[in-house]
Amino acid sequence: MIELKNLSARYGRVGVLREVDLHVAPGEVVALLGANGAGKTTLLHSVAGVHRAVTGAVLLDGDDVTALDAARRTRRGISLVPAGRQVFAELTVEQNLQVGLHGTRLSAAEQSKRFEQVLSMFPVLRDFASRPAGLLSGGQQQMLAIARALVRQPAYLLLDEPSLGLAPQIVEQILGVLETLTESGVGVLLAEQNAGAALGVSQRGVIVENGVIVRADSSDGLLNDPEVSNHYLGVE
Ligand code: ATP
Fold first, then answer.
1. Which of 159, 145, 149 is nearest to 31 (CA)?
2. How many whole angstroms from 43 Cα to the centroid of ligand 1?
3. What is the pLDDT of residues 107-123, one digit of tens each?
4. Nearest one of 154, 158, 185 to 75, comparing CA atoms
5. Is 125 helix (H, G, I), strand (E, B) or coil?
6. Which atom of ligand 1 sits closest to the CA of residue 35?
7. 13, 20, 40, 189: which to mutate for ligand 1, most atoms within 8 A of CB?
């Protein structure tokens, strides 16, 4: 389980997250909702160890990992897929996946097995295995960014706005993969401005406003709350 305890984060003197308590258990998807600038990215980065200016604690399966840097947390099973699908445009799809395995020292057979597993989740990538990632569509690049994180077989996946700029059908396809992941016990923290899509695939959700968690409930509870739908789901 990932647990955030009384976590606060700042940039220089500016506080961005305040006293956040949150947990993600194995096999569940937790949606992290909030407007632009609410602090979702900072929260994910604080969990991943990318952002270090924090007080409070990040626990991983009961161990305090707050002092560990991002590389060490990745080795402990936390993988971040940053916003903006940061794939290596010049590298092929397969080379991007190899980058995901950097530092793991797996046998060639195990590598192929891992590639096979992620490509079966995103079959379209298989067809483009030797194509430079920069030539893929936005949706395919997002799939690749997620696949690159998944080849490490993380225990926890942190996704930052995977739906941004993508057509609803592609979003559905990408978020649909989370079900397969959670069935195998992966815990997912999904930061999204697209609350409807995120609550559709999550079991629980929290809403962040100005760095504070102002609401935490089951995803159904949030979806059926008129105040939440007015603010975050748009008027239908
Ligand atoms: P977005 O959807 O735009 O990424 P967010 O909810 O993820 O929004 P954050 O990116 O975590 O929000 O930003 C939270 C606050 O911290 C914002 O007010 C932002 O301007 C500020 N901020 C983010 N990065 C920095 C930085 N490197 N230096 C200073 N302030 C920052």
1. 159
2. 10
3. 999 999 999 999 999 99
4. 154
5. helix
6. 6
7. 40
Nearest to 81 by CA among 11, 12, 168, 175: 175
Q: What is the DSSP letter of 92?
A: B
Q: What is the mean pLDDT of the chain?
A: 93
Q: Is 186 in the pocket of ligand 1 (CB under 6 A)?
A: no
Q: What number is the ipTM of this complex?
A: 0.90
- pLDDT, greater one: 91 or 52: 91
Token representation of residue 181: 């992941």
How many other CB atoms are found less than 10 A from the CB of residue 220? 12
d(CA 164, CA 175): 12
Contact 96, 144 (CB under 8 A): yes
Helix axes 93-100, 108-121, angle to 10 degrees: 120
- Residue among 7, 11, 160, 190 to mutate when testing ligand 1 (max atoms within 8 A of CB): 11
The pairing of strands 187-192 and 156-160 is parallel
